[in-house]
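Researcher: Structure prediction, please.
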Amino acid sequence: MRSPVLPLTWHLARSSGRRGLQSHLLAAAAAAVGALVLLVLLAAYLGSGVRADRTAWRTPGPDRHGTAVQALATTHVRHEPVTVVSLARLPGRKPTPAPLGLPAFPREGEVYVSPALAELLRKLPAGQLADRLPKVSSYGTIGAAGLASPDELLAVVGRAATDPAVSKAADGEGLWDEGLTARAVVSGFSGGERSVFTAGDQQTVLLGVGLLAVPVVVLAAAAGRLGAARREQRLAALRLAGATPRQILAMTAAEAAAVGATGALAGALAYCALLPALARIPYGIGTWYAGELWVGLPWLAAVVAGVAGLIAVSAVSMLRQVAATPLGVAQQASPRRTRLIRLLLFAAVLVYIRQSAHGSDLTTGQMVGYVVLFYGAFWLFGPWVVDRLGRIAGRFARRPATLLAARRLSDDPRGAWRTVSGLVLAGFVAGFFTVGHLAVGGVDFGDRMAVPAAKGATAVTEARTLLRKAGVTATVSAGDDDFLLGGADGVIVRVPGGPEQTDAALTALQPLGAGRLPYTGDYAGAQDITAGGLLAGLGTAALAVGFLVATASAGLTAAANVLDRRRVYGLLRLSGTPLRMLDRARVRETALPLVVLAGGTTMTGVYAAYQFNKAAESTISTSGTVQLAVCLAVGTLAMFAAIAGSRPLLRAVTADPAQSAD
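Model: Predicted structure follows.
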């Protein structure tokens, strides 16, 4: 016998009228936002791994039976890193395959450059950049397969096997050379390590996923609860009419899953349409190739199904009371209280995180796990705080609007918590990435640079001669500073006058190194500068996406609450309550838990960042206090603006209070 569940579900959805359609549209919108953000996070995570793998071929993988010599070197121009890969065939050996992005193994004297480097070579004077490479009539172009980003500065140079650039002297073993300078005999271009400029991209994105995925999941779960009051009343009537609990649950799951799948599919289509724009967002070494951000159809389908399933599970979880006591739901006789166990669980989680994270070196995965655990615990704890705030506010209320807000908080603490939960959880992100921003920078060389050289006293004279020919005013001294030289021999050059003079000096002094390139503090602090830039970029993205999700969640939930409380608002209007007072009560219902809970999570984020900085032996950015204040102010204004957006809906549902209260 054919089950009547799906036909009845479709009939009830069609006959639910404008009120039901509004709830479905809001739920679909929430699902679309959730799916879009999840797909962007997934794309950033997978894409950062792809772009990092594209840089592994540049680090030489030693092979004693190799056929060519590969040398990796790093220089800087305008404080941006330029990677130089030198390749030389070994006489009497079989041919070596072409590197990624090149049509063939480069012959002696050939120079291939990335499109971004080619543009920079045309823009800057030759004495500041082009003279660091062999002079050629034209440069070859490195294809996208060999590049991590369209903005990457990379050169591949074909050299003779006797060239100093590929000699054993080019193998850096100094304090600052790890991952930036290397040399080996190779037989191919597989098995190398990721570049220092991309190796940390994926782990940093993973931290961002941990910070943002939970608020997004919360938004998707909230979508399943939109229209809960209307759904409870309708299904309670069906339950009293003889429908079984299984039929009730199946109808709810089918309706919610259909709405969620429609919204999630819209979010997936928006992600596909936005791929070219997303690829232009810089991260780490630069912007993206659009293909790096394409997650593929299996992942796309998995996210759509996951969001739809989450919304269905969330909707079904609201029906336990309908299945157990349909008469109580129909009469709205059961207040939604919270229990003390929420506070105890939250305290236990905080103690566990504090004990587990204290005094240990945390991996990125562990940090993400602790963040998700904290979010989950706070999600349980939030309604308990809202409930207590409502009782306290009701006891001391002196104005009708405050009394109404307090009553709503204590009657439905979970609904009130869902409205502010997005900004409350975003407060943790704001606290972590503003006041707690890592004070990471390069090694302080000042206006000095180090020139590795093994020529003793004659190196000083040669350096002065080279600088004079280049028209650079500088002071040259013997290399008696082991810190700047990283323990190697060489000279120290002080170059005042700004980045143009520094770049000209780096170019002029290149012949002095006999295979090693001169360098500044940008080279010595490359890893720290890269890590700091990644965290700064992650912080900006996390704040933007976090507050976007919070605003969307607040607006959708506020509108849904108006629809769910249509009968209550109608009765209040019939009793003479002004519309302005109802609106004030809605605002205070949001402001009370927002001040208390968002303040708590923000301070927790600041404390977490302090501990993170302490472990990294860095300091927190006190100037970030202003940024934190601005973030919270903008987030709060955006939330109240989202709530104000549902004011016309409140006016519409109370336009005919007699019909609304029916």
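Model: Strands lie at 68-77, 80-89, 111-113, 140-141, 154-158, 182-186, 448-452, 475-478, 490-494.
Researcher: Thanks, that helps.
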